[in-house]
Amino acid sequence: MTQDIVSRNAVQVKGSGTRAIIFAPGFGCDQTVWNTVAKAFEKDYKVVLFDYVGSGQSDLNSYDIQRYSSLDGYTQDLLDVCSALNLKNAVFVGHSVSSMIGMLASLRSPEYFSNLIMVGPSPCYLNDPPEYFGGFEKEDLIGLLEMMDKNYIGWATMFASTLLNDANRPEIKSELEDRFCSTDPIIARQFAEATFFSDNRKDLSKVSVPSLILQCSQDVIAPESVGQFLYQQLPNSTYKKMEAIGHCPHMSHPEETIASILHYLNKASVSGALNG
């Protein structure tokens, strides 16, 4: 079973440390988006990289439409990986929707995690005035899904630009486009629906694992109002506003991302908030 999960989710374990740090990719991406950032942790941590079923080098034959119709299926992927590697008190670093997947996993099995590091997180992408502004109207998201159905390549180009929100980084935009285009359009569309129509706001107050919210500047996908909402709702959370522009700082601003994570972990270690 352990080997099945390792193969199914294309799990890679690197580094020489004893404490584990897990890096989880966001929607439409695979573990390679973490290459630069993850490498910086190999000296002091056991670095765990994986792909959700349906992306990257995962076993596509394991994809099940019903299982992955909500974030629960992806949460189970993460829990399966933790179980297969017999992890305990691992640091979890999730980008975008993976922040919520990590949070949901921590609610089910908190013993696996010492800290949750959320990069560009959002518990709900839909506006719900007057109390909450997630950044999108329902019509916006329906239009996004319709574009995926009609012109997937065009959607990939448009969405990569939206994520980055920085015309000065064409090479990163191209990288993102390639990743979107290497994903099966049907799987990507279902993941998009599970992501953008999820609402995990009511789960936030139940989280027991300390967390770091890394909020990017000029992030269209997870605007600053969302990061502030998370900070207010998540118990034992730390908020850090980054200079990085856009939604993918691990790709566009890896040095700042590394420094932000290290600063938090070092501080948590000194205060005793880093369990184990």
Automatic annotation (TrEMBL):
<feature type="domain" description="AB hydrolase-1">
    <location>
        <begin position="20"/>
        <end position="254"/>
    </location>
</feature>
<dbReference type="InterPro" id="IPR029058">
    <property type="entry name" value="AB_hydrolase_fold"/>
</dbReference>
<dbReference type="InterPro" id="IPR000073">
    <property type="entry name" value="AB_hydrolase_1"/>
</dbReference>
<dbReference type="Pfam" id="PF00561">
    <property type="entry name" value="Abhydrolase_1"/>
</dbReference>
<protein>
    <submittedName>
        <fullName>Sigma-B regulation protein RsbQ</fullName>
    </submittedName>
</protein>
<comment type="similarity">
    <text>Belongs to the AB hydrolase superfamily.</text>
</comment>
